[in-house]
Write a structure and sequence with these properties.
This protein is 53% helix and 11% strand. It folds into three domains: 84 residues, Helicase, Ruva Protein, domain 3; 208 residues, Rossmann fold; 76 residues, Winged helix-like DNA-binding domain superfamily/Winged helix DNA-binding domain (Arc Repressor Mutant, subunit A, Orthogonal Bundle). The structure holds adenosine-5'-diphosphate and magnesium ion.
Length: 388
């Protein structure tokens, strides 16, 4: 079929042609929006799961819902190990300035104008001077040397101004587990205070499966502050629809066995669905995709994953780190005990600390529990086995 009409979208954060299986999360957020409209408070939301399951896409979708309901919504991605604390703060500052400027055009109420000045002061304290972006400042508000205090004052001013309108201030953070501890703890503390004071303010975060534990480590009460949602692979019917619906929209279809074969091969992982879908579209000679097409697409899709999705992580590991990963791969994707990895490599557990920390920093593995280590990417162990 014609590549220029190929609807599938493999890639990080790329909106899929059909987003399936996430109705529960979308409905939960609709409820938050409706409750906010009724001036009722809610908890923040945390989406956690492996790489490639569709967290970024879902987070973006929630943000656009918030935007549609005229919330003051900002979005930041906490960078990996390469970007420092300062960079994330500036990103947050710029995102806030932009959201405030947009909001200014929508509302002329004095209450809102005053609140937006607090954003101007706050972003100035983050190194993004509000005035140069057309915001006025609120002297004495959100402009101290204390990040947590400034954040709290800004949130208080903005959220209390939005409350009568039935709207909220929301900060969407992708890769939240990578946020530095100071900013993370400030966000959690303010979320806590907001709940107590009835300020419509929400942190909506996405990240790896250990994100709930990371938050609890910073503030033990984080457990109660958020609605935690594990984002996993799609159910078989949702996975089948993710393949089928976009093809049909473009005038093609799957023979039932072909669809079952492809759905099975992806195990419901959204990234794989897009990659395999893209492959079958490009190679199928006719408008009806056959079992033979599906078998070829699985080979080609797998090859593409082996050339892109996996190496984009594997290539970042040093030789010593790769030995660590290879020792992990013996346990499949189920996770390993660090003590066992040490035994396999003939090393003392303590001597593996640096490799382990570096691999966590690079986002290749995460610690689901003390003394445990697991791949962040589904299928990584099989990929490593194929490298031999
Ligand atoms: N619900 C879904 N249905 C179908 N495809 C999806 C869905 N969610 C995400 N995808 C696709 O999966 C891939 C990975 O999505 P992404 O949001 O980057 O995952 P994550 O942030 O969890 O690593 C993208 O190609 C995206 O188009
Ligand atoms: Mg992501």
């Amino acid at each position: 079929m014609e590549p220029r009409l190929n609807p599938y979208q493999p890639g990080s954060g790329l909106r899929p042609p059909e987003m399936t299986g996430r109705e529960p999360e979308l409905e939960a957020f609709d409820t938050v929006i409706a409750r906010t409209g009724n001036r009722l408070t809610n908890r923040g939301i945390i989406l956690s799961g492996l790489r490639g399951v569709g967290k970024t896409v879902l987070l973006n979708e929630l943000r656009s819902l918030a935007h549609k309901h005229e919330w003051l919504a900002v979005h930041v991605e906490a960078g990996g190990s390469t970007t420092g604390n300062d960079a994330v703060r500036k990103k947050l500052g710029r995102a806030l300035v932009q959201a405030a400027r947009e909001y200014k055009t929508r509302s002329t109420a004095k209450r809102i104008a005053d609140a937006l000045s607090s954003i101007g002061s706050f972003t100035t304290s983050l190194g993004v001077p509000g005035v140069s972006f057309g915001l006025t400042l609120a002297p004495g508000r959100a402009d101290s040397p204390d990040l947590a205090l400034n954040l709290e004052e800004m949130v208080q001013d903005v959220a209390t101004a939005l409350r009568p309108e039935g709207r909220a201030l929301a900060i969407f953070v992708d890769e939240l587990q990578d946020l530095d501890k100071e900013l993370l703890s400030a966000l959690i503390t303010v979320q806590h205070r907001a709940g107590q004071e009835g300020w419509p303010f929400y942190v909506i975060g996405a990240g790896l499966p250990n994100l709930p534990a990371v938050l609890s480590d910073v503030r033990s009460y984080a457990e109660r502050l958020f609605e935690y949602r594990h984002i996993g692979p799609l159910s078989p019917p949702a996975a089948a629809n993710a393949l089928k619906v976009p093809a049909e929209r473009m005038g093609a279809q799957y023979a039932p066995e072909a669809l079952a074969l492809l759905t099975d091969a992806t195990q419901g992982y959204p990234y794989f669905l897009q990659e395999y879908g893209k492959a079958i579209w490009d190679l199928a000679p006719e408008r009806t995709f056959t079992t033979a097409d599906a078998e070829a697409a699985i080979r080609i899709g797998q090859d593409r994953l082996d050339q892109g999705f996996y190496p984009s992580r594997w290539d970042r590991a040093t030789p010593a780190e790769r030995r660590f990963l290879a020792a992990m791969a013996e346990d499949g994707d189920a996770g390993s005990r660090t003590a066992e990895i040490a035994r396999r490599l003939g090393k003392k557990p303590a001597s593996l600390g640096p490799a382990r920390a570096s691999l966590i920093g690079k986002g290749l593995v995460y610690a689901p529990a003390h003394g445990q280590i697991e791949f962040t990417v589904p299928g990584m162990s099989a990929f490593i086995a194929r490298q031999r």
